[in-house]
TrEMBL record:
It comes from the Bacteria. This is DUF3168 domain-containing protein. Pfam families: Tail_completion_gp17 (PF11367).
Amino acid sequence: MIVEPCFALQKAIRRALVASEDVTSRVPARSIIDGTRRPEDFPSIIIGEGQTVNEGLNYSRSLIRVFLDLHVWTKGEALADTKETVAAITAALDEEPIVEGVELVDFLLSGTRFLRDPVGLYGHAIVSIEALVEVLQ
């Protein structure tokens, strides 16, 4: 079976977030989705942009660096709810997620940016995730 590493990581992260009571007490599981813009339902976690880069570190070229962003949206001008939701996400991803079809070599929440929505009605954060995976042959 052919595996796209970014999509495999995306599914593993969603499973980990949905399995976390701390996350789902803040964001319903139905609102943790793959999407492209500001959601209609708040709060929400949008699994957003991704990128895969072949590291070229081994002869088989099976080591792939995966980048993935999570967009966290809350309603309200203050960012406190957004920051608490990010804390819950961080705790949920503290354990190595189980990624099907690839071997997870390294996993890192590499940073978070907290943004104010220009309209002033929403809190927004972007959680950046980086992983090194080996594609299983």
